[in-house]
Design a protein that fits this description.
single chain; about 200 residues; mainly alpha; Four Helix Bundle (Hemerythrin (Met), subunit A); about 80% helix
Length: about 200
């Protein structure tokens, strides 16, 4: 493939990384159904929810790796990828709170930050796209681990896992708030630079 061909491939929405991102979005309703299907937190459907979550998270890593290695990074991907992440993690957080397994204040703090930053990205998109930062990637990783620890039905067999899950979630809240402030600063700088030009 020539550099021109790579450039054309990177400009189309229908490339492999973007299809994986859309697959991740499509997995969200199945994850939600699986998580709600059992009355208990350790039934067989709970394991199906764990599997759906794990597959969705793997597609997140896979689409990013492919996009960067093959020059398939697109503006659609930059916007759709974080939205897919937020749909998955947001639904997990809300459902865990509905099921009484996670305090509502945790869910509210994280979701206000997540959707607030997404809205901010759209507000400043005419000045440029704000890509995911290293802090944002760390935030996603910590949130993912925390949610995974909450949804894996092992706490009833190993109570200490519940304590670990709680403190990992507290770390996720801290990183989420910190990176949210960073994105606001980035957006303000991008807007100021766009107005000057």
């Amino acid at each position: 493939m020539t550099s021109t061909d790579a450039g054309r491939a990177g400009s189309t929405v229908w490339n492999l990384p973007n299809i994986l991102t859309m697959l991740r979005i499509a997995l969200v309703p199945f994850f939600v159904w699986f998580l709600l299907a059992d009355a208990s937190s350790h039934g067989p459907w709970r394991w199906a929810a764990v599997a759906a979550f794990a597959v969705a998270i793997y597609t997140d890593k896979l689409d990013g790796d492919i996009a960067r290695s093959r020059g398939l990074v697109t503006n659609f991907g930059k916007i759709a990828d974080p939205i897919a992440d937020k749909l998955l993690t947001g639904s997990a957080l809300v459902l865990l709170s509905v099921l009484g397994e996670l305090p509502w204040w945790v869910t509210v703090v994280i979701l206000v930050r997540e959707w607030g930053i997404t809205a901010l990205r759209f507000l400043v998109i005419r000045y440029g796209v704000i890509p995911a930062s290293r802090g944002g990637k760390l935030k996603t990783a910590v949130q993912t681990v925390a949610i995974f620890l909450y949804i894996v039905p092992l706490a009833s067999f190993a109570p200490w896992l519940g304590v670990v899950a709680f403190w990992v979630m507290m770390a996720a809240v801290a990183v989420t708030v910190w990176t949210g402030v960073e994105y606001v600063v980035q957006a303000l700088r991008l807007r100021a630079a766009g107005r000057r030009s």
